[in-house]
Amino acid sequence: MEVKRREERSSLEASLLHIIHEHQNKALLIRDQTDKAKKNALKSAQNLSNLLVDTVNGGVEEAFINEKRIEMEIRALLVTIAWYKKQTDQWLATTNALNTVLKEIGDFENWMNIMDFDCKSINAAIRNIHQA
């Protein structure tokens, strides 16, 4: 009887060991599957993150390129404005000089008219004296 009990105990122990071993194998399998799923989830999240960053960076890069292009156009416009300012200042100086010359011509013409009138007056006075 005691042999039978020992056999039952060893059979029971073997069954328990077998159940524990199966449980450990299943736990390892589940852990491996969980790790694989976790790694896949992390890869997917990283890929999504990279795609989102690339999308945002693409817009930022385009905005940066546009900003640089606008800055270059502003510099070119500033150069053009400076050239037009210089040209306008030259035209203004030339116009002022022409204005001054025209005033002098007007003054000279007025002086000539006065001289003509004075000469005619003197001529008339000399004739009157000569006739008298």
TrEMBL record:
GO terms for cellular component: BLOC-1 complex. Coiled coil: none annotated. GO terms for biological process: endosomal transport. It comes from the Eukaryota. Pfam families: GCN5L1. Belongs to the BLOC1S1 family. This is Biogenesis of lysosome-related organelles complex 1 subunit 1. It comes from Rhynchospora pubera.
